[in-house]
Amino acid sequence: MPSSTNYKRNYKQENKYKSTPDQIHKRVLRNKARRQALREGKVHIGDNKEVDHIVPLSKGGSGGKHNQRIVSASTNDSFKRNSKGALVSQISKREKRRKG
């Protein structure tokens, strides 16, 4: 458990996952989307905005412009997740409140 005082983090295992070709490709797409939004003036450094993929890359979404939107960091972090941290719903809690 990370909260345990004797917990020792396994960096080798974490980096093993992060360095898989699939994870590298997804990271490249995320970084590219952010750089593109910065160039176009849609986001600025320190503005508390994030580039969100409407259909997440982990769920088979593409890195194209048609699959991107600019949202606040708090909105992007409020998507429903399961106990393992995987995305469950693509609609944030705030968006649900607005609709309902």
Structural class: alpha+beta
How does the major sheet shape up?
A: 2 strands, antiparallel
SSE series? HHEEHEEH
Rounded to the nearest angstrom, the radius of gyration is 16 Å
Low-confidence stretches: none
- Strand element count: 4
| Shape, principal axes of CA atoms | globular
Beta-strand percentage? 15-25%
Helix content: 25-40%
Q: State the end-to-end distance.
A: 38 Å
Overall mean pLDDT stands at 83
Characterize the quaternary organization of these chains.
single chain
The largest beta-sheet arranges its strands as 1-2
Number of helices: 4
Strands, helices and their partners?
Elements: H1 11-18, H2 21-40, E1 49-53, E2 68-72, H3 73-76, E3 79-81, E4 87-92, H4 93-99
Antiparallel strand pairs: 1-2, 3-4
Please supply descriptive tags for the structure shown above.
100 residues, two-stranded antiparallel ribbon, 4 helices, globular
Please, could you describe this protein's structure?
The chain is α+β, with helices and mostly antiparallel strands and 100 residues long. Helix content is 39%, strand content 19%. The strands form two sheets. A two-stranded antiparallel ribbon has the order 1-2. A hairpin with a 5-residue loop joins β3 and β4. 3% of the residues are buried.
